[in-house]
Design brief:
Blueprint (H helix, E strand, L loop, with lengths): L14 E6 L3 H8 L3 H21 L2 E7 L10 H26 L1 E7 L5 H4 L2 H5 L9 E7 L3 H11 L18 E4 L18 E4 L9 H12 L8
Parallel strand pairs: 1-2, 1-5, 2-4, 3-4, 5-6
Helix pairs in contact: 1-2, 2-3
């Protein structure tokens, strides 16, 4: 039985990194391009970073694609974002999965965007999770209350909730772009003892050296987890 006291980062099995790629709308306005172009650029950025994550001992990556609250925005923006996510899943994840031995899973609120979550079967069948060198969780229309409700309904023992969370491993570090120093409901349970790094750069302006500097700083820290 998993206990809440066990839900802390554990050294020795690679790092779990959380990524909040914020700033897509502002980047589009600054560059005078469409939202779709901005989201395409973000997707390309993430794709370029994936092999570098593997080289730097990241074994699990959770990406905050969108929160449930993001879907209160204007319909044209939601449509551009959802269309780009579907296109990226259909056209890019399969090749990335096989090329780099990466497993992908979509987590979040499935009932409102079934077209996205129907793709889970397709991407989950690419690489077996236990054989992947990098496990990627795509948090789409995510709300922590939905995750907890799912865990309560699926578990028979309150002490076993951890095993029924959509993402069961605690985060080691979280990197957010865009200048905002908050988590915005991103995996609050999993982030309990995560180190938080905030960049003023918009995500599409981030370079690998920016990401690497945060990972390198984290690796040099002494972690106590409240002890």
């Amino acid at each position: 039985m998993a206990q809440t006291a066990d839900f802390y980062p554990v050294d020795g099995n690679g790092l779990h990194l959380g990524l909040i790629p914020d700033g897509g709308r502002r980047w589009a306005a600054n560059q005078k391009v469409s939202l779709k172009k901005s989201y395409q650029t973000s997707g390309n950025q993430i794709s370029d970073f994936l092999p570098e994550f593997i080289k730097n001992n990241i074994s699990e990556l959770s990406i905050y694609l969108s929160s449930a609250q993001n879907f209160k925005r204007e319909a044209v923006e939601i449509e551009a974002f959802v269309d780009e996510i579907k296109e990226a899943i259909s056209n890019h994840l399969s090749s990335l999965s096989h090329q780099h031995q990466i497993s992908f899973k979509i987590v979040g609120r499935p009932q409102s965007q079934p077209g996205i979550f129907d793709m889970n079967a397709m991407i989950l069948n690419q690489i077996e999770t236990d054989k992947a060198v990098l496990k990627v969780n795509l948090c789409f229309q995510y709300d922590p209350f939905d995750e907890l409700m799912h865990a309560f309904q699926a578990s028979k023992d309150p002490g076993d909730l951890i095993n029924f969370l959509w993402i069961q491993r605690p985060l080691d570090l979280v990197i957010r772009s865009g200048g905002a120093n908050l988590l915005s409901n991103f995996l609050p349970l999993q982030s309990a003892y995560a180190r938080l790094y905030f960049s003023d750069k918009l995500f599409n302006d981030l370079e690998w050296n920016d990401i690497f500097s945060y990972i390198d700083h984290y690796k040099k820290l002494t972690k106590k987890y409240g002890e």
